[in-house]
Design a protein that fits this description.
With about 140 residues, this protein is mostly beta strands. Helix content is about 10%, strand content about 35%. It contains one helix and eight strands. It has one helix spanning about 5-20; strands at about 30, 30-35, 40-45, 55-60, 65-70, 90-95, 105-110, 115-120. The strands form two sheets. A four-stranded mixed beta sheet has the order 1-6-5-4, with no helix packed on it. A four-stranded antiparallel beta sheet has the order 2-3-8-7, with no helix packed on it. A hairpin with a 2-residue loop joins strand 4 and strand 5 (about 65-70). The longest helix has 13 residues, at about 5-20.
Length: about 140
């Protein structure tokens, strides 16, 4: 069998082992993407292996906080783990949201290990035209 080594993956794995899993007081980071799509701001978090009931989403003022916990899978007594690279524990991410976003109407969807938040852009922040009124042009001075 040919074995290929990836030194950076090994370094990452060793770092995770030394640091241990994330805890509620010291959570690990979670990867995310953020982009604008039409009139919404979309944020997608990678949370493979996390159940929907282990995800907590909070918004306080302009601070969005997402916490999730990947719990170990229960195994039969006769199972002996040979390799364990998937991190367990608590993951968290905080994002400061702009005042132009409508935090009252955030929609959350969780599918195939990806948590997607859709945050609408507030009406007051959307571009709009301002009409110009034209006066009568001449004014007479009577005296």
């Amino acid at each position: 069998m040919l074995m290929r080594t990836e030194p950076f993956r090994e370094l990452d794995r060793l770092t995770q082992q030394l640091m241990g899993p994330g805890t509620w007081s010291r959570p690990s980071a979670m990867p995310m993407d953020a982009y604008r799509e039409g009139d919404e701001y979309v944020v997608a978090f990678d949370l493979p292996g996390v159940t929907a009931d282990a995800i907590d989403i909070d918004v306080e003022r302009n601070m969005l906080t997402v916490k999730a916990e990947r719990r170990p899978v229960t195994k039969a007594d006769d199972v002996q783990m040979e390799l364990s690279e998937r991190p367990l524990g608590v993951f968290s991410r905080q994002i400061v949201l702009a005042d132009t976003l409508d935090t009252e109407h955030i929609k959350a969807d969780y599918d195939v290990g990806v948590l997607t938040l859709r945050i609408p852009i507030a009406e007051r922040a959307k571009p709009h035209k301002i009409s110009i009124s034209v006066g009568s042009g001449r004014k007479e001075i009577s005296g």
